[in-house]
Design brief:
The complex is a heterodimer of chains A (113) and B (111). With 113 residues, chain A is mainly beta. In chain A, strand 10 and strand 11 form a beta hairpin. Chain A is globular. By secondary structure, chain B is mainly β. Chain B has no helices and 11 strands. In chain B, strands 2, 4, 5, 6, 9, 10 and 11 form a 7-stranded mixed beta sheet that branches. In chain B, strands 1-3-8-7 form a 4-stranded antiparallel beta sheet, with no helix packed on it. Chain B is globular and about 40 Å long. The chains are: A mainly beta (113), B mainly beta (111).
Chain lengths: 113, 111
């Protein structure tokens, strides 16, 4: 079945450092791919998405490129801020519509001043 | 426009009891999905409701059941609670076939 594997955390970075969170997936066909973010005490928010191979999703300075040859969707940000501290989830919706979303285990990011 | 709302925020129950969690979808959304998020884990899909019917179900026992009302709001019921049911329960709504919007969750603690 579909699955998502993402790097374990926690990840601790200094402010303005470069961030990469790795994500690989196993799925039938070429699904859409998502990154969700969960701030402390809050629900999940969709951060960015890509709907087909070689697409780049971007939002709030974060980017991720859908690489079908490596089945990856790594999240990157050039300069993190303290306000980026959160848990990040890579996710895979079921084919044929977003009826079920399969999530990775999450990567906790802590950014220190 | 209110987003997805869930109630209650927190709940403490005893093993063997039953619990009902509630969700109101975002305005204009007709599909509700429920997820269980154990501490330190990603959310796991429980089931999805559309047109008052359970459309898809994840790998959860029959102790987990749900309902969707004509106004698209939904309930999640869990019977015979186990300690392992302690988790954050997330509701997500969508307009059929489109991306899901998540609520803040209900934190259930089973003692």
């Amino acid at each position: 079945g579909d699955s998502v594997t993402q790097m374990e955390g926690p990840v601790t970075l200094s402010e303005e450092a470069f961030l990469t969170i790795n994500c690989t997936y196993t799925a039938t066909g070429y699904p859409s791919l998502f990154w969700y973010v969960q701030y402390p005490g809050e629900g999940l928010q969709l951060l960015l998405k890509a709907t087909k191979a070689d697409d780049k999703g971007s939002n709030k300075g974060f980017e991720a490129t859908y690489r079908k040859e490596t089945t990856s969707f790594h999240l990157e940000k050039g300069s993190v801020q303290v306000s980026d501290s959160a848990v990040y989830f890579c996710a895979l919706p079921s084919p044929g519509g977003y009826q079920k979303v399969t999530f990775g285990t999450g990567t906790k990011l802590q950014v220190i001043p | 426009d209110a987003g997805v709302t869930q109630s209650p925020t927190h709940l403490i129950k005893t093993r063997g009891q039953q619990v009902t969690l509630r969700c109101s979808p975002k305005s204009g959304h007709d599909t509700v999905s429920w997820y269980q998020q154990a501490l330190g884990q990603g959310p796991q899909f429980i089931f999805q409701y559309y047109e008052e019917e359970e459309r898809q179900r994840g790998n959860f026992p029959d102790r987990f059941s749900g309902h969707q009302f004509p106004n698209y709001s939904s309930e999640l019921n869990v019977n015979a609670l186990l300690l392992g049911d302690s988790a954050l329960y997330l509701c997500a709504s969508s307009s059929d076939g489109y991306e899901q919007y998540f609520g803040p969750g209900t934190r259930l603690t089973v003692t």
